Amino acid sequence: MNTKVFAYDTTLRDGSQAQGVSFSVEDKLRIVRKLDELGIAYIEAGNPGSNPKDLEFFRRLGELNLQHAKITAFGSTCKVGANPAEDGQLASLLGANTPAVAIFGKTWDYHVTAILRTTLDENLRMIRETIAFLKAQGKEVIFDAEHFFDGYKANPDYALQALAAAVEGGADNLALCDTNGGSFPDEIFAITQTVVARFPGVSVGIHCHNDCELAVANSVRAVQAGATHVQGTINGIGERCGNANLCAIIPNLQLKLGCEVIPPANMQTLTTLARFVSEVANMEHNDKAAYVGGDAFAHKGGMHVDAVHKNPISYEHITPDTVGNARKILMSEVAGRATILGKINEIDPTLTKDSPETKTIIERLKELEHEGYQFESAESSFELLVRKMLGKFTPSFELREFKVVVTEPSGNGINSSAMLKIHVNGEDEITAADGDGPVNALDKALRKALDRFYPELRKVKLTDYKVRVLDSSQASAAKVRVLIESTDSESSWTTIGVSTDVIDASWRALVDAVEYKLAKS
Amino acid sequence: MNTKVFAYDTTLRDGSQAQGVSFSVEDKLRIVRKLDELGIAYIEAGNPGSNPKDLEFFRRLGELNLQHAKITAFGSTCKVGANPAEDGQLASLLGANTPAVAIFGKTWDYHVTAILRTTLDENLRMIRETIAFLKAQGKEVIFDAEHFFDGYKANPDYALQALAAAVEGGADNLALCDTNGGSFPDEIFAITQTVVARFPGVSVGIHCHNDCELAVANSVRAVQAGATHVQGTINGIGERCGNANLCAIIPNLQLKLGCEVIPPANMQTLTTLARFVSEVANMEHNDKAAYVGGDAFAHKGGMHVDAVHKNPISYEHITPDTVGNARKILMSEVAGRATILGKINEIDPTLTKDSPETKTIIERLKELEHEGYQFESAESSFELLVRKMLGKFTPSFELREFKVVVTEPSGNGINSSAMLKIHVNGEDEITAADGDGPVNALDKALRKALDRFYPELRKVKLTDYKVRVLDSSQASAAKVRVLIESTDSESSWTTIGVSTDVIDASWRALVDAVEYKLAKS
Questions:
Q1: Are B401 and A409 a contacting pair, CB within 8 Å?
Q2: DSSP sequence for A320-388
Q3: End-to-end Cα, chain A, rounded Å
Q4: Which Pfam family, giving just one, matches this sequence (chains A, B) (predicted)?
Q5: What are the b/e assignments for B278-307, b being 16+ CB within 10 Å?
Q6: Rounded to whole angstroms, what are the CA distances from B160 to A79, B148, B153, B209?
Q7: Beta bridge partners of residue B105, listed in sequence order
Q8: Residue B467: per-residue pLDDT
Q9: B271: nearest Cα among B229, B308, B234
């Protein structure tokens, strides 16, 4: 096993094949900049032959002045019977003007004869001549050996001949692809070892897919077998079940196996980068993700929490700040007084665990949790609660009355509207709004009513709204918990409301969302 | 490697430690029934010692008449210095009256001295005597060796002594736990092999967590090293990054390695089961999940699609129907036309897959799924849809109008009421009701209005009500999906409604709940 390993990111190429993912040129430039800052060695940025609008992106990449990363353009071998020098797709690839290029070719005999519909020898010629042509243009060439593991299992001789053709053409790296994602760690290890031994002096890469939930393990095992390039994507995005997840592979290799993949100081930026890519891809960040998920270091049970406080190694495989993540002790009675006191001290540093105020707050917290509140995901509501109980809160408005009306059928189907009357600074304000459903109507009416008193609320948007039925066996009389996430584009905060009435629960969370913003301004 | 492998499901115990997961007794019973139908060998159903309300659940498990699964209750060794026969927690464990029990104990010397704060010998006594006590009560005993891999790496002699104590006590199975989720496939393989060789005649289990995104690989490698029990959860739910995912492990072992884990015919129900558990847990089903995700067999690139049509093996590691999944995301396709035709034939046995009616129904199903409907968990609504489209449905009533009013504050806080006017058999009926929230008020008003026309509805109760926000980034204007479960004490049925308005979505599900009952009577 080599300890120097190159991370090869294909978020912008293979990753963008995922359903629902589509990056603008500006998005791609931002992602490239962040990947470079992390210390990724190769960034496979797109396929200029299949996507001519990528050419603008490749042109603008020159502006970035990257520190670590080699930009790589992706294409395929020349067509059956064709001369690489006359292949338009290869011309586009060269037109991208990158230091490195990756080209994929067939290594599974079945694919050559049944899908490509040519002879096994012609496929070898295509690989060899395409790579030789690109090498003659001064490129570093990565050969993506498509379906290599399936091909090797079906016909090892031919799969190795295909790699040999790439090496004859001058390939710098043989990237072994488990294209269908069906291979197992022991197979990957053994086959990679064979390839490494067969082609000394040529670096070997690994490219896995997660169809058996084994992509991270397969990538790690390939490195343990001698591969030095690891292909993958941030958060494992990619088609079907995704590509191998670099956010797990990089810390696995570097923190657990002692490999050098990125500059050690950058490891602490991994969580931020992962969240950034989720955001740009407009995907919900996976809370359960290894290393970089919001719950990756969350502790619930009291015993675990005590033990982690005594010594993190007792229930944590690494300390969370190593990857820029944080321990999350759930804000509940099991979290222990120390955690809650920390929150209280942010508002009043003079209180101790024995202060009567502290005890009263903890009692109140327990009562609310029994009613269905859950403050671990709504710390802003908890902060407001503490402020109120310490007399450090002045409401920005008083509710006089609201009335929400839902009628069916109206002229255009269902119609929801809200009338709202509030009292602010000695004045009454009454207003109404309609909306997509009763909560939306109420939200709009509240903003409308507050607008002239608190113009700073204009920047605030609701970004997330979650409803959960707490005791669903009580059916439609069950309690509901509503969580609302808001942002003013600088920060975001989450508030909570619980009630047997979804409107009432939503109203409580809406009021907290507004009050929290006003308390902070 | 043994080819007979026992699946050990801990969704209801370790899985329910995950943030946001909380199952009602009714939920748990439904999950147990489905796990048994799949062919799971052991179902770890809860921890009766830590959660006294679980006793009702364990009592009711007796009603289920399970075919495959042994119900297992979970607890821990006796306390330091204590006699197992006098331990209240062990008494609760026995009170659960299950054929098998699992108890966890310490095997990492550091945990014994620093967290448990006792001597290494006392810990061995606790393990040995607790297991001997449980064996004397006639239980099958699984010893959950907490932190076994970390313990073995720190002090292999002591970790093996702890297992030896369990074997001396009479343990039937040694479940090796990677509690912190930090171990790697090669380590798991080598250490499991050592344990298997050391304790011939005792079966060995594996219990992994996904903190390095390696839990599935680690579990598979342990089986390859000789383990015969595989612990995990459906969809990998569990605290932090989750438990090992049985929905990947079971097909990996059975389809790829030739193990016998569940009856072969049941493999086709895996995707449905996985979706069912997501729905009951009120979690979004992971589209990217291996084998059972909605995107697991989705193809984007045209070339891939063509090749897959030529021959599935070209870009698929298995054919999707092997696990009850399908090449597209929609449930219509997931269930397969055969399944849908089966439903249609229940209503009209003369239709075939080529009938124009069948095609029209499938088209409509696809449209509704694009709108956010999901019929796997709401087959009663699907049946009504089919009846409507085949002209085999007469509505029991027509809605003339409803109006729901929510006011705050009234004399006693928030007040919700509903006025409803319907038309039945040539007569109008107008009524009103108030309730705990607008949906409950509407539900009560509808029952009141229908009462004199359809007295059989008096037996019907709503037993479950779930709300899911479909596109939470649209905040309070997002679409919501409502699922309502009803029962008449003989059978139960689930109906669905989708709308941007929670009241409207609930109304649709309520109407289906009533119509389904009346169509059946």
A1: yes
A2: GGGGT---EE-SSGGG-HHHHHHHHHHH-TT--TTSHHHHHHHHHHHHHHHHT--GGG-HHHHHHHHHH
A3: 55
A4: HMGL-like
A5: bbbbbeebbbbbbbbbbbbbbbeeeebeeb
A6: 60, 9, 11, 21
A7: B145
A8: 80
A9: B234
**Maximum distance among all alpha carbons in chain B?**
84
Longest CA–CA span in chain A (Å) reads 88
Q: Tell me if the bond preceding A409 is cis, omega within 30° of 0.
A: yes
Domains of chain B: which residue ranges? 6-262, 298-389, 398-520
> Which residues of B fall within a CB distance of 8 Å from A242?
288
Q: Which residues of chain B neighbour A310 with C-beta distances below 8 Å? A: 114-115
**What phi and psi, each to the nearest 5 degrees, are found at residue A298?**
-90, 140
Q: Which helix (H) or strand (E) holds A20?
A: none
Q: Could you tell me the CATH superfamily of domain A6-262?
A: Aldolase class I (3.20.20.70)
* Phi, psi values for residue B367, rounded to 5°: -60, -45
The strands making up A427-435's β-sheet, listed across from edge to edge, are A427-435, A413-424, A398-410, B398-410, B413-424, B427-435
Please, are residues B418 and B444 in contact by the beta-carbon 8 Å criterion?
yes
Per-residue pLDDT tens, chain A, 521 aa: give them. 888 999 999 999 999 877 667 677 778 888 999 999 999 999 999 988 776 667 788 988 988 889 999 999 999 999 999 999 999 999 999 999 999 999 999 999 999 999 899 999 999 999 999 999 999 999 999 999 999 999 999 999 999 999 999 999 999 999 999 999 999 999 999 999 999 999 999 999 999 999 999 999 999 999 999 999 999 999 999 989 999 999 999 999 999 999 999 999 999 999 989 988 887 776 778 989 999 998 899 886 556 777 777 788 888 999 999 998 888 765 554 445 666 788 888 889 999 888 999 889 888 887 887 777 877 667 889 999 999 999 999 999 999 999 999 988 755 678 889 999 999 999 999 999 988 888 889 999 999 999 999 999 998 888 777 777 776 555 566 788 888 888 887 777 889 999 888 899 999 999 999 999 999 88
Q: Which residue has the tokens 């008096």?
A: B458
State whether CATH 3.30.160.270 applies to domain A398-520: yes
3-state secondary structure of A99: coil
Give the DSSP H or E segment for B44: strand B42-46
Neighboring chain B residues of A476 at a CB cutoff of 8 Å: 435-437, 439-440, 442-443, 462, 465, 484, 506, 510
Q: Do A503 and B406 touch (CB under 8 A)?
A: yes
Residue A485 identity: E
Neighbours of B319 (CB within 10 A): 14
Structure tokens, B79? 């306390």
Structure tokens at B470: 């479909």
Listed residue (A137, A200, A202) closest to A171, CA to CA: A202
**φ, ψ (nearest 5 deg) of residue B188:** -60, -45
Q: Minimal Cα–Cα distance from B356 to chain A, Å? A: 31
Contact assignment for A465 to B443 by CB distance below 8 Å: no
Q: Which residues of B touch A467 (CB under 8 A)?
A: 467-469, 480, 502
Q: How far apart are CA A419 and CA A421, in angstroms?
A: 7
A217, A406, A462 member nearest B501 (Cβ)? A406
pLDDT in tens, B370-385: 777 878 778 889 999 9
Specify the pLDDT at position B331: 45
- In sequence order, what E strands does A64-153 have? 70-76, 100-106, 140-146
Token duo for residue B329: 């995301």
Question: Within B115-207, where are the H helices?
Answer: 120-136, 148-154, 156-169, 185-198
How sure is the predictor about B338, in pLDDT bands with cuts at 50, 70 and 90?
low
Yes or no: say if B442 and B503 are a contact pair by the CB < 8 Å rule: yes
**Record: contact B502-A438, CB cut-off 8 A:** yes
